[in-house]
Structures are given as C-alpha cells and as structure tokens.
From TrEMBL:
InterPro entries: MFS_assoc_dom, MFS_dom, MFS_MFSD6, MFS_trans_sf. Keywords: Membrane, Transmembrane, Transmembrane helix. Its main location: membrane. The chain crosses the membrane at residues 45-65, 77-96, 233-255, 275-294, 314-335, 356-377, 389-408, 420-440, 446-467, 479-503, 509-529. This is Major facilitator superfamily domain-containing protein 6-like protein B. Belongs to the major facilitator superfamily. MFSD6 family.
Length: 574
C-alpha cells in the first residue's frame, strides 16, 4: 500500500493529461457534429433525431459501463479497445457521402459571402472580385466531374452565381434563411416519398381494392424510406454516431471508475474533485485550434468530403495520443465487489426528498432547453456569416467562464442560499435563449456565452450539494450519475427529438423563445413549491453518535452532544 501511495501524484498527473487530451478530442468533433450533418444535406428533424439518439445511447449505456472487469489485463484491454474503437467510429462519419452534393458547397461559401454581402452589393465588381468569383466557379466546376454519376447534383443557379458576387450573396442569403425559417414547401421527405403513392391508391373503385392498395401503400412507404437517398444517409449517420457514443462513453466511464477506485484505495478521493478542470481546459484549446485550422482549408477535401471532416480527423489523432497515456495508468482492482443496483437505490433517494425532486426536474428542463443551443446555434451563426473561429471561441468562452467562477464557489455558496442561486441560473439561461432568438451578429454569441458560468456551472453546484446531503455512504457518485442521465439522456435527448421538428415548422427563433417561456414558468413554480417545503434538516455524525448513547441521562446526553458538535465545528474550521 505504501508503494502505491507514493504514486498518487503520478496517477493524478497522468489522469490530468488524459483528461486534457480527451477534452480536446471531444471538443474537436462533438460541438461541430450537427454542422457536419447539415453539410451532408440532412434536414433539421433528422439531425435532431441523430442528436437525441446520441444522448440517449450515452445515458442508457453508462450504468452498464460502471461494472468494470475484475482483472487488470482485462481493464487495460477494455480501455485500449474503447479508445481505438471510438476513433474508428468517428472516422466512419467522414466516409458517408452527402445526400445533397450542393449542400456542402452552399453552406461552406455562405459564411464568407454573407459576411461581405453589403460591400459587394454596393460596389461594382472589380478585378479582384471577378477573380474571386471565377475562383469559386472553377472550384465548383472542377468538383462536378469527380462526383459519382448517380449522385452528381444539378448545378442550379450557376449562371446567377457567375453573374456577380452581389447576386450570389443574395441567393445564398435566401437559402440560409430557408434553413432557419419555415416555408410551405419545407416538408419532411417522408411525406414527399409516400404521398404520390398514397394518391394512386384512391383511384380504384371498390372497398376491397382500397384495402389491398392500402396494404401495398404501407409496404411501399416503408420501402421508399429505405430506398430514398436522404434516409439512407440518415440511417448510416445514425448507426455511426450511436456506435461512436457507446464506445466513447465506455472509455470515459472505465477510466473514471478505475481512477476513483485507485484514489479510494490510497485514501486520496478528495483530490479527485478538481480533475474536470483539465477536461474543460483541453476542450477550450481543442475547439479553438481545430476551428482556426479548418478556416484555412478549401471547402472540399475531395469530391464528396467537406473540410468539416477534419474535425473528426483531429478527434481520432488526439484519442490515439491518449492511448499512449493510458498505458501508464496504475490500476487497482478492489477485492470486494458490490452487486447492489445503485441506480435504483439512487432513484429512491431522490424520490424521498422534495428538494431533490425539484432539482431533478430542473436539470431535466435545462438539458432539454440547452439541446436547442447545442444542436442549432452553429447553424444560426453560419447563416449570420460566422467563421468557425467564432464557433470555437463560443465553446471556449462558456467553459472558461465556468472555470473562473469555480474559484468563487465557496464564497458564493456561503453568501447566497441555494434557492437564490438556482433562480439566478434559470433566469440567465432564459436570457441566453432570448438573446439567441434575436442574434444580430456572430460575435455577439461570445458575450452571451459568458452567462454559462451561472446558467450551467453554478446550477450544478447547488444540485450536487443537495444530493450529497441526502446521500447515504457510497451513493454520492451514483446520485450524480443519475442526475447527469436525467439532464443529458432524458432532457437533452427529448429536446433534440422535438427541437428539430419545431425548427422545421416554426423556425429557430420560436424554438428558443418557447424554451425561454418554459424556464420562466418553471422558475415561478419552483419558488412557490420551495417555500411550501419543510426546512431541510441535515443528519450529521454528532446526532448519530448522540442517539446511540441511550443510557445517558438527559443532562449528560446534552453535554455529550454539545461537545461533539463543538469538536466537529472546530475541526472543519481548521
């Protein structure tokens, strides 16, 4: 045991480096996933389904990952296979051809041309402008013959694009608006493929023919779904993303559980709580670095691969580097294994406390509301002429703001009550959503993202502190895991499923404002219910010890309790 205690510092350093690489790798790809799916030509409802399935798969798979193998060699093999598997699954996404060959070209150039739309429309194209237009036209022309024959898209509007930069920018602006605001023609491709067949079934005259045709229509509708180009791409993307998330979740949980068991063995779990800072720092650096690199590339790396594929190449590279770090991890296999279903026990503990129930519903709603930002904010920024640098900075600003606020955590929790912090957090999240619905320029996102320090970071301080008060020994991590699953697996997945359809039919601004109203209503409700709940009574060790001394007289019992309370307060103060 003494030799392993000497390795605590090395284990924490290796874990910090591993989390730094993991955070950077995740931030290279995960925030830009929905943007990549847009370049593949998938509409908002299908993108929402993919994002929701991703969150749901992680939440359902996480409890199973907590049961690590017993042997050290098996654990190392699981970590290595999960690392390589997650890297390979992310690369599968780059091999999927686009459903619409024009989509990647349109959105890639939209941000640059929309940014210069005002100047281009007000001036006559000069030599530099005409050369730029010809370069864009030549890039597209050279790209056309390389497209596979069955999937080669018609070059719609090519004459308009070459007639001048101003008209091209206006056309691109119109296309960008169609992606965020609904029109009568924007319907799901499912109905597009099935309605003509359904219309043909009503031409027969008798009822039996109607029934036979209806059966044939249902079969042909299902067949059309799988034969439709867009749905084929959707199914391939869905499979690759779910596989990627399962392997990444397995990796993170295995490494995390192994480290916690090791620190618990050497009695150093108090140093575990700040390791998340390394993940946030890595994510901040990774998101900005990959964004700067991608901005320097051409729109297409090949005939069917957009430059956004570089995000997944970066993820695979950083994950491979973290494999080298994982080789040196110290592994401790506990002799005693607990087979109790901690998930069910954690749910029972949450259900037994009124405040815990309120906070569980709160994290569910914040996860659902936050999914709208995670899934479609980059779409909105791209249509406002944003480069990827602003997108990467928006990720970094939110994470760094949480880190900076963390250093004032103790002072804030002592100064303000839990209810006030939750109220401020929900209010600021509603303000964020309202600001996004009126987004005027891309750089304004950076200012709004600063509010994430409270709307996300401070909220989770209170939630975790509340569940720690009701947790029985050994149940703290299980309670935190259940709440994380409620937020991301429950709230974020449901919000993603519904968000894509709301955006398709009502627009992104309506989606943001709807969640803003929901959060404000929940804020009023939680304040009313909180005031009706009985005051929270914490059970501490002094009461438990005093309760065991039943043979003492009343005066002796009171003196003993006072002595224990005073001793514990002095120890905690020191």
């Amino acid at each position: 045991a003494m030799s392993e205690q000497w390795d605590v510092g090395r284990a924490l350093a290796l874990s910090g480096l591993f989390r730094l690489l993991q955070g950077a790798g995740r931030a290279c790809a995960a925030p830009f996933l929905t943007l990549y799916l847009r370049h593949l030509g998938l509409p908002a409802p299908l993108v929402g389904v993919v994002a929701g399935a991703k969150h749901l798969a992680a939440a359902l798979w996480a409890p199973l990952c907590s049961r690590c193998p017993k042997g050290r060699r098996k654990r190392r093999l699981l970590v290595a296979s999960s690392l390589l598997g997650s890297a390979g699954a992310s690369l599968l996404l780059t091999l999927i051809p686009p459903a619409d060959g024009d989509a990647g070209y349109k959105y890639c150039n939209a941000s640059q041309q929309l940014g210069d739309r005002g100047a281009a429309a007000a001036t006559v194209p000069g030599p530099g402008t005409s050369s730029h237009v010809s370069a864009v036209t030549n890039a597209k022309a050279t790209r056309e013959p390389e497209m596979p024959a069955p999937y080669s898209p018609p070059l719609r509007g090519l004459k308009k694009e070459t007639s001048g930069l101003g008209s091209a920018a206006i056309d691109l602006a119109g296309n960008a608006e169609e992606s965020l605001y609904p029109t009568e023609s924007n319907e799901l491709s499912l109905f597009k493929t099935t309605l003509p067949t359904a219309g043909g079934s009503y031409e027969s005259g008798n009822l039996s023919d109607h029934r036979k045709d209806a059966q044939g229509v249902s079969f042909e509708a299902v067949q059309n779904i799988f034969q439709d180009r867009e749905h084929q791409i959707f199914l391939m993307v869905l499979g690759a993303v779910v596989l990627w998330e399962l392997l990444a979740t397995s990796l993170e949980w295995t490494v995390d559980e192994n480290l916690y068991e090791y620190l618990d063995f050497v009695d150093a779990t108090d140093r575990y709580g700040k390791l998340w800072i390394w993940s946030y720092l890595g994510a901040s650096v990774g998101a900005c670095s990959i964004a700067v690199f991608v901005d320097q590339l051409n729109c297409f790396l090949s005939s069917t691969i957009t430059r956004l594929a570089v995000h997944f190449y970066g993820y695979a590279l950083l994950i491979t580097l973290s494999l080298l770090v994982s080789v040196f991890f110290p592994i401790h296999v506990p002799k005693r294994t607990d087979h109790v279903n901690k998930t069910a026990k954690a749910l029972a503990l949450l259900w037994s406390d009124g405040r815990a129930i309120l906070y569980a519903i709160t994290v569910f709603l914040t996860g659902a509301a936050g999914s709208a930002v995670q899934n479609f904010l980059f779409w909105q920024m791209q249509d406002r002429g944003s480069s990827e640098l602003y997108m990467g900075l928006s990720v970094a600003v939110g994470l760094l703001a949480e880190i900076l606020l963390y250093f004032f955590k103790g002072k804030l929790l002592r100064t303000f009550s839990s209810v006030k912090i939750v109220a401020v957090s929900l209010s600021l999240l509603a303000v964020q959503l309202l600001c996004y619905s009126f987004l005027w320029t891309a750089w304004s996102v950076l200012l709004v993202q600063i509010l994430s320090a409270f709307s996300s970071g401070a909220l989770w301080w209170v939630v975790n502190m509340t569940v720690d008060d009701i947790a029985t020994p050994g149940m703290e991590r299980s309670l935190h895991a259940v709440l994380q699953s409620l937020c991301y697996g429950g709230g974020a997945s449901l919000g993603s499923f519904a968000g894509g359809f709301v955006m398709k039919h009502f627009g992104l601004a309506v989606l943001y404002r709807a969640w803003c109203v929901c959060l404000v209503l929940w804020l009023f409700l939680i304040l009313i219910v909180q005031s009706k709940l009985p005051r929270q009574k914490k059970i501490n060790y002094s009461r438990l010890l005093a309760a065991d001394s039943s043979d003492m007289s009343d005066s002796d019992e009171e003196n003993e309790r006072d002595w224990l309370v005073k001793a514990m307060k002095d120890e905690s103060f020191n």
